[in-house]
Amino acid sequence: GQQLNQSPQSMFIQEGEDVSMNCTSSSIFNTWLWYKQDPGEGPVLLIALYKAGELTSNGRLTAQFGITRKDSFLNISASIPSDVGIYFCAGQLTLRAGGTSYGKLTFGQGTILTVHP
Amino acid sequence: NAGVTQTPKFRILKIGQSMTLQCTQDMNHNYMYWYRQDPGMGLKLIYYSVGAGITDKGEVPNGYNVSRSTTEDFPLRLELAAPSQTSVYFCASSYSTANKAFFGQGTRLTVV
User: Fold this and answer.
1) Mean pLDDT of B12-32
2) A44–chain B Cβ distance below 8 A for any pair
3) What's the mean pLDDT in B79-108?
4) Residue B1: what pLDDT?
5) Cβ–Cβ of A42/B104 closer than 8 Å?
6) What angle do CA B83, B85, B89 make, to 5 degrees?
7) Sign of the CA dihedral running A21, A25, A30, A34
8) Which end of chain A has fewer CB atoms < 10 Å from its terminal CB, N or C?
């Protein structure tokens, strides 16, 4: 099956610092998604990427879909305390069966972000 | 907007008991998914559905069953609960393959 390696596993940073995390895959995806999960909550979508090479921003967040389609990174600029949480990458591969297309999300292990004021 | 709603939020089961985790979405999404999240791990796909009446296995289906009789509902059934099924379960839905999935708030299940 597809494997996603997300790094780093955890980060401890000072407020105001920039953050970078990435995911690499053993196989190709045609969609990359980045989620954030707060304690006791479900993951919430931050950014979706649909094309190789695509660079997309959402406020202080920027994510890129790698050219090889096997990797993606997420940057957070000027971190603030509310950025604390677990960040997950997810790759989606569109499959077809019996004329129906569907996508199964494969998740990375997550990056735990702690921001010190 | 309700989005994806999961019930219950918490449950403690004894070994061998059965239960159904409920999931409903009001966004008219065709695709629905069940994931489990173990401590320090990402989400593992249990089962998914591409539409009413169609379901298929994910990465970790053993010990679970699903049904999709309507577009809105996608219940997950545990027939004989085991300690290995202690986890947080997330239901998700999406409109199509290229669209993002929306998650419920999770069900925390403990099997003792």
Assistant:
1) 95
2) yes
3) 89
4) 62
5) yes
6) 145
7) negative
8) C
Is the peptide bond between B8 and the residue preceding it cis, with omega within 30 degrees of 0? yes
What would the two tokens of residue B80 be? Answer: 């004989």
Comparing CB atoms, the residue among B51, B90, B99 nearest residue A42 is: B90
Strand order in the sheet with B64-66: B4-7, B19-25, B76-78, B64-66
Best of B97, B99, B108 to mutate (most A CBs within 10 Å, chain A): B97
Are the beta carbons of B106 and B7 closer than 8 angstroms?
no
Which among B109, B99, B107, B42 has a CA at the least distance from the CA of B74?
A: B107
Locate the chain A residue with the closest alpha carbon to B94: A103
